[in-house]
Amino acid sequence: MAASFFHLPRSHHNMVTLVLVCGWIAAKPRTVDKYAAVHQALGYETLTLLATPFEFFTPEASVHTKSFEAFKAWRQRFPADEPLHIVPHIFSNGGARTWYCFENHLVRAGMPFHVPGMIIDSALTKPYDHKTGPAAFAASVKNPVLRQLLTGLLILVFFVLKWVLIACGQGSPIELHFQRFIERDTAIPKLFLYSTADKMIPASQVEYAIETAQALQTPVTAVNFEDSMHVAHLTKHPERYAQSVETFLAKVAPQTKRPAAH
User: Fold this and answer.
1) What are the strands of the beta sheet with 45-51, ordered from one edge?
2) Is rRNA-binding a UniProt keyword of this protein (predicted)?
């Protein structure tokens, strides 16, 4: 999937801070760009990555390889000794998969980077439960009979996939995301943006991630928009959403300006 960058003039930089906007599965570029624009208005460069369902069935080393090449070219715009800060803004399970794989690319390439904070929108699906992931994928189907049939089929597919991945020395993506973002990255502050009205990833599942992170002493900020649907909080509550993001970023990754070159 192609990468979409937003660049600031070179003189505006003091450190390299990039917001990695990791869209949900099958999201339209124009829709995800509206979220990227929130960060751009605050003075951050952004890289937008889009997700497909196939990435859950693709070896992680093969996910977003072209996007990573574009990212490396972007990084060369800056001196190598300038610290690279990346703030992932992940949407749903698709965005979680994107950041998981992209971070692996960074590590394999030996590129130093720091994650000062994470923004998690409409996620994470509760792990260690074979029903939650399939239910989330099938939630958009309006016909209740078809939804149940699809959920049952996906439970079987996910169950088989899990054991195939284990046999290949890998794990279930849903569980890997939770293990890394919540259980491993405890020192990284997190902003959770979710809603009680979300039918795809219910608030109870997001709150499970929040409570687990808090129990592990992670600095957590959580905003429940209450009546907005899955990945639709900005559309329903634009001012509150933008303010929540701005307040969080001001704490974890304040954007400073470099004097213009003479």
Assistant:
1) 4-6, 45-51, 16-25, 84-91, 118-121, 190-194, 220-224
2) no
Copy the structure tokens of residue 104.
Answer: 């692996």
Runs of H (alpha helix) within the chain: 29-41, 65-75, 92-109, 132-138, 144-167, 173-178, 203-215, 233-236, 238-252
- The whole-angstrom separation of Cα 155 and Cα 37 is 37
C-alpha span between 123 and 129 (Å, rounded): 15
At a CB cut-off of 8 Å and minimum separation 6, what does 99 contact? 20, 22, 88, 90, 181
Going from the N-terminus, what domains does the chain have, and what CATH number goes with each? 16-129+172-253 (3.40.50.1820)
Mean pLDDT of the chain: 87
Distance CA 3, CA 165 (A): 28
Tokens linked to 187: 């020192």
- Cβ count near 108 (within 10 Å): 10
DSSP state for residue 181 in the 8-state scheme:
I
pLDDT at 26 (0 to 100): 86
Q: What is the residue-level pLDDT of the chain in tens, covering all 262 positions?
A: 456 666 554 444 567 899 999 999 889 999 999 999 999 999 999 999 999 888 877 888 889 999 999 999 999 988 888 899 999 999 999 999 999 999 999 999 999 999 999 999 999 998 876 666 666 666 666 778 887 887 778 777 766 766 666 666 667 888 899 999 999 999 999 999 999 999 889 999 999 999 999 999 999 999 999 999 999 999 999 999 999 999 999 999 997 543 333 3
Three-class DSSP category at 190:
strand
Three-state SS at 47? strand
- For the entire predicted model, the pTM comes to 0.85
Amino acid at 139: A
